[in-house]
Amino acid sequence: MDHEPEYPDEFISFLEMIWGEGYLSPGGPDEVGRILDGLDLTGMHVLDIGCGTGGIALSLAADYGAAKVIGIDVEDPVLAAAKRRTVARGLTERVEFTKVAPGPLPFGDGAFDLVFSKDAMIHIPDKEALFADVMRMLKPGGWFAASDWLSNHDGEPGPVMKRYMEAEGLDFRMGSPERYREALAAAGFTDIAVVNRNEWYCGVARRELAELEGPLYEKAVAAAGKEEADRNIEIWRAMVPALEIGELCPHHLRGQKPG
Fold first, then answer.
1. Beta carbons of 150 and 247 less than 8 angstroms apart
2. Mind listing the pLDDT tens digit for each residue in 1-22?
């Protein structure tokens, strides 16, 4: 049975108003570029885990030269938006989107040159199984490049982080940088990098909150409705302290499958 979507249309509209059309996580296309820094995607077959509304997958083909991009997600509203954008951009031959169920992914061994994910693995509880599956799907010499929302420790969140997670109301399954690094190593990745982006997003989130409480408020209401705009402002008010104490710490992640 399908569950109630965690990313309904109003929430999508709000996030895209903040981060750009097709982007549901911080930094928009600039942050994607930083995640992919030094990688040449020309001619690659790419999997985008947690593709959301498709902005990144379309960019991987149109701007980075990937030959084929498959975006996957578990939610219908975001996939419907992604498919509409693909048709509008004329990229249906190179980019496709498909709904998947939680668990092992339905792709063959060595199917991809690159597996990418932007701030979506927070919803997947078993990081160890996920990275083992990513390793299986990569070709020898292929890369995993991603970002995700991490906690600076495993176990029960502290009160500030708990307040933020309750405000979000999403099914967050956070892990620590140490857990991610160990899970990547256990899966067999080499050249592992786990890079803390807390300082960057802490500054960005403060500015976003100030704008949402001021000049962007009416635009947010127009995009998503007053109730959704006010709900998200409360999320930002809870998120900024969690970033400031360092417990909420977005990271870049990278590893290579041995050739």
1. no
2. 355 778 888 999 999 999 999 9
